[in-house]
Design goal:
Blueprint (H helix, E strand, L loop, with lengths): L8 H5 L3 H11 L5 H23 L34 E6 L6 H8 L2 H7 L3 E4 L9 H14 L9 E5 L3 E3 L16 E3 L2 E2 L5 E6 L2 E10 L2 H11 L1 H4 L9 H9 L8 E3 L30 E3 L8 H13 L14 H13 L4 H9 L5
Parallel strand pairs: 1-2, 1-3, 7-9
Antiparallel strand pairs: 3-8, 4-10, 5-6, 7-8
Helix pairs in contact: 4-10, 6-7, 7-9, 11-12
Length: 360
């Protein structure tokens, strides 16, 4: 075998003693005074930066939950100022992807004032994650994983899901008012701490267009079970897709004790028959002062027109729906609801009774 004539790396780049001396004369010149000052400046800056990063105190306290006391004015400029470094422990979530639709973008934007007043972070999914309507579950699982990976004191406590076809009508209503007091008895040997999902029913059963979900391991298991329902039961009938899956899984003994149903119109109300009709008594219909309106049905294909009409009302200067919290019936109804559950009354009966009341 002939020896290779290719020069080696070492032979190409090695230096003999004379070459080293010559190389040093070219590259090892004494640094000028300006160069020395420059290097010292960089060194000082680096040391200062390291000191700042390692000695800046970090607060171990979690941001406080913002007060849910009634706002006495409907003008956001006259509400108590909020410190921007504090955030609510409730985060909102929704999804809107595909071709841009100005109707739905306007509906999502209607939440902006509400988010600002109460310091709610708002998470919006802009890319489809799974086929059909199942991206809702996947996105919520993503948010839950993100929150649960944080230290407990820095996590959100609840997620408030709303479909993109909801218009925020009354920004003075804080989401905190709908949550059960942690220590309060809510029936069935449960307290508010045991409630992990707050939902509403319409005449078809569960409607998951708007609901509260506690950030917890329970929530991960519940959504995972709903998402994988067809994997375990290929013949299950899901009339309303992921909504039916949540209803079926929510009826299982492992999950049902941690779910509370509340009057639909509290935070998942449908539009009233007209904008000028007398106060409605239908359990599903929004009242003046309601938090939002959910435009769930589009059988006639006129949902965009209805949404545009109510969007104009929500944004008008004389919006009669924009009431201070203490001028609505929320506080008295919510207190009564939790009290009656704690006294052992049937949940369905309490929901039916309170839900059918009119608001003048």
């Amino acid at each position: 075998m002939s020896r290779s004539t290719r020069p080696s790396f070492d032979s190409d780049f090695s230096l003999d003693d004379n070459d080293e001396e010559s190389q040093c004369r070219q590259t090892c010149r004494p640094r000028s005074r300006i160069q020395t000052l420059k290097y010292l400046s960089f060194l000082t800056l680096a040391v200062s930066l390291i000191f700042y990063l390692t000695h800046t105190p970090t607060s171990s306290l979690s941001p406080p939950i913002l007060p849910s006391s009634p706002f006495l004015a409907s003008d956001p400029s006259s509400t108590p100022p909020q410190d921007s470094k504090f955030r609510s422990k409730i985060g909102k979530a929704t999804a809107s992807f595909g071709p841009k639709d100005t109707t739905y973008e306007a509906a999502i934007s209607s939440h902006h004032t509400h988010d600002t007043i109460h310091s709610y972070p708002h998470f919006i999914l802009r890319e489809r994650m799974l086929p059909g309507l199942w991206s809702k579950h996947a996105f919520l699982l993503t948010l839950l994983g993100t929150e649960l990976s944080k230290p407990a004191e820095h996590r959100l406590h609840w997620l408030f899901w709303h479909d993109r076809d909801t218009i925020l009508m009354n920004p003075n209503v804080p989401l905190e008012v709908f949550l059960p007091p942690p220590e309060k008895e809510v029936g069935g040997n449960r307290t508010g701490r045991d409630v992990n999902l707050i939902v509403t029913n319409d005449r078809h059963g569960l409607n998951n267009g708007v609901f509260f979900l506690r950030v917890s391991e329970w929530a991960v298991r519940f959504l995972s079970a709903s998402l994988s329902l067809r994997e375990w039961d290929a013949h299950v009938t899901l009339k309303y897709s992921e909504q039916s899956a949540m209803e079926i899984v929510g009826g299982r003994p492992h999950f049902s004790p941690n779910i509370i149903h509340v009057p639909q119109r509290w935070f998942n109300a449908y539009p009233p028959p007209s904008t000028t009709s007398p106060p409605p008594s239908a359990p599903s219909a929004a009242r003046k002062g309601s938090l939002l309106i959910h435009f769930a049905s589009n059988r006639d294909g006129k949902r965009p027109e209805r949404m545009a009409q109510w969007q104009r009302i929500a944004g008008s200067p004389g919006n009669e729906w924009n009431k201070p919290l203490n001028e609505t019936r929320y506080i008295t109804e919510i207190d009564e609801f939790w009290r009656r559950l704690g006294e052992g009354e049937d949940e369905g009966g309490v929901v039916s009774d309170i839900g059918a009341r009119k608001w003048e």
